[in-house]
């Protein structure tokens, strides 16, 4: 497995791979690899001939006061995990390599990005779509793999690739959970033992809400039910509990499925997100 921090080097490696007629799969990450990323890498390994894992803590998707400085940085550990899973190349550029001082071009998806997390983290999705576009241009993957835990991110990236005719297939992989239901995430590392014990209340609340939706509950009823259960847990501070149309993230047209239940909550300073899609 190779590790490169240079765009021109990655381009020339990919050029040779393509010259052999091999397909390329990309797993974009910010590092601190966990079981959720492992699942994406395994899926890419099963499908594509050449697997690239990008590791880049993208500064432009963090807002002021967010955890850019504290975000876990562990390239050697991550490289060992990726190699063990059969990745062929790690692309781990510096911020200067990705964003030279006169960088001034951004990619922005409208509509979907002003809801849920987008409403509370202005500029976040613009940062995500800009860096993902750059990664697509550098790696030119046939397929790119994203987790459903970041449901809104997945939807926004699907829309971007469709709207801009990017020749990349977006492959969605299910949320990976700990045994007690907590969605696996890099930020779980920040949790104290007490916060960690409280955090599964988010998924429990989502499950309860999903059962209600299956029985015909309206979006408002589901939101109130999920919110009440999370607010019952003193170590969690709810940011939002929303029940929306899973395709548009707008108010659902009717009660019952299909519905996306999405939550963001703080455990101390750690922001946790999770969701369940209640299918029709
Ligand atoms: O989901 C993430 O880790 C990041 O948002 C991504 C897609 C790698 C872009 O920086």
Give the overall silhouette.
Answer: globular
The amount of helix comes to 25-40%
- C-alpha Rg, in Å? 19 Å
Q: Would you identify the CATH H-level superfamily of the largest domain?
A: HUPs
List bound small molecules.
pantoate
Task: Please tally the helical runs, counting DSSP H or I stretches of 4 or more residues.
Answer: 10
Looking at the overall shape, the CATH architecture of the largest domain is: 3-Layer(aba) Sandwich
Sheet with the most strands?
A: 6 strands, parallel
**Computed structural class:** alpha/beta
Head-to-tail CA distance between termini: 43 Å
Strand fraction equals: 15-25%
SSE order in H/E notation?
EHEHEHEHHHEHEHHHEEE
As for the CATH topology of the largest domain, it is: Rossmann fold
Query: Uncertain runs with pLDDT below 50, 5 residues or more?
Result: none
Number of domains: 2
CATH class of the largest domain: Alpha Beta
Mean pLDDT: 98
The total of beta strands comes to: 9
What is the topology, as strand order, of the major beta sheet? Answer: 1-4-3-2-5-6
């Amino acid at each position: 497995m190779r590790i490169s921090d240079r765009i021109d080097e990655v381009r020339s490696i990919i050029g040779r791979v393509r010259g052999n007629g091999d397909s390329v799969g990309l797993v974009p990450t910010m590092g601190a690899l966990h079981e959720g990323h492992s699942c994406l890498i395994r899926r890419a390994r099963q499908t594509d001939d050449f697997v690239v894992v990008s590791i880049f803590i993208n500064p432009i998707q963090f807002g002021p006061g967010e955890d850019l400085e504290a975000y876990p940085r562990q390239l050697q550990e991550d490289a060992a995990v990726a190699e063990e899973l059969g990745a062929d190349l790690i692309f781990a550029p510096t911020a200067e390599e990705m964003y030279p001082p006169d960088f001034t071009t951004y990619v922005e998806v409208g509509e979907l990005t002003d809801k849920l997390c987008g409403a509370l983290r202005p500029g976040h999705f613009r940062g995500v779509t800009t860096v993902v576009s750059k990664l697509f241009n550098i790696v030119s993957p046939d397929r790119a793999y994203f987790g459903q835990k970041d449901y809104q991110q997945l939807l926004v990236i699907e829309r971007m690739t469709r709207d801009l005719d990017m020749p990349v297939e977006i492959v969605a992989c299910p949320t990976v959970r700990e045994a007690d239901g907590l969605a696996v995430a890099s930020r779980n590392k920040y949790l104290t033992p007490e916060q960690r014990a409280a955090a599964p209340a988010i998924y429990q609340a989502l499950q309860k809400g999903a059962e209600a939706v299956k029985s015909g509950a309206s979006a408002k009823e589901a939101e109130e039910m999920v919110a009440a259960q999370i607010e019952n847990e003193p170590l969690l501070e709810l940011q939002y509990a929303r029940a929306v149309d899973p395709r548009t993230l707008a108010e659902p047209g009717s009660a019952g499925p299909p519905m996306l239940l999405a939550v963001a909550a703080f455990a101390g300073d750690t922001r946790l997100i999770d969701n369940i899609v209640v299918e029709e």
